[in-house]
């Protein structure tokens, strides 16, 4: 049985390069879930199940606007009498963030914490919190920014809110 913190491998992506002051941008955490395992969705079906959450520890000058979690997949497991809402394979959580007009210029780092509980068909591992970091560059207001990773961020417009 793997350690709980080794079941999910998260990667971060930023929607703009650079991020101009005064703009809203998105951060994505794409989590690859080990085959044979699942994690509870953000809205699990039972109160006692631990939801998957992504929490930003925003530095001064950044403000979180919205968080988008995908819907879970309803799957039946031997340990539960009814289907559960879970994530398998790959899941993407997106945070929409505003860079204030006074956010410091230059390289920035935004610490994030991904919390989940991984299970297979017979066993659940202890819940864990995985630190993740998003790196970006802040530019003066009005700077032309390039959209990056459209394969990730174009889907965010249709994802359900929190």
Strand proportion, as a percent range, falls in over 45%
Topology-level CATH name: Immunoglobulin-like
Task: Specify the overall morphology.
Answer: elongated
The total tally of domains equals 1
Share of helix among residues?
Answer: under 10%
Low-confidence stretches: none
Q: How many β-strand runs?
A: 14
The CATH class: Mainly Beta
Which CATH architecture would you pick?
A: Sandwich
CATH superfamily label: Thiol:disulfide interchange protein DsbD, N-terminal domain
User: If you compute it from the alpha carbons, what radius of gyration comes out, rounded to the nearest whole angstrom?
Assistant: 17 Å
Provide structural commentary.
By secondary structure, the protein is mainly beta. The chain has a single domain, classed as Thiol:disulfide interchange protein DsbD, N-terminal domain (Immunoglobulin-like, Sandwich), CATH 2.60.40. It is 2% helix and 49% strand. It has 1 helix and 14 strands. The strands form 4 sheets. Strands 1-4-10-7 form a 4-stranded antiparallel β-sheet, with no helix packed on it. The longest helix is centred in the last third of the chain and has 4 residues.
Summarize the structure.
The protein is an all-beta fold. The protein has one helix at about 150-155, and strands spanning about 10-15, 15, 20, 25-35, 40, 55, 60-70, 75, 85, 90-100, 105-115, 120, 130-140, 145.
Give the secondary structure arrangement, pairings included.
Elements: E1 8-14, E2 16-17, E3 19-20, E4 24-33, E5 38-40, E6 53-56, E7 62-68, E8 73-75, E9 84-87, E10 90-99, E11 106-116, E12 118-119, E13 128-139, E14 146-147, H1 150-153
Parallel strand pairs: 3-13
Antiparallel strand pairs: 1-4, 2-14, 4-10, 5-9, 5-12, 6-11, 7-10, 8-9, 11-13
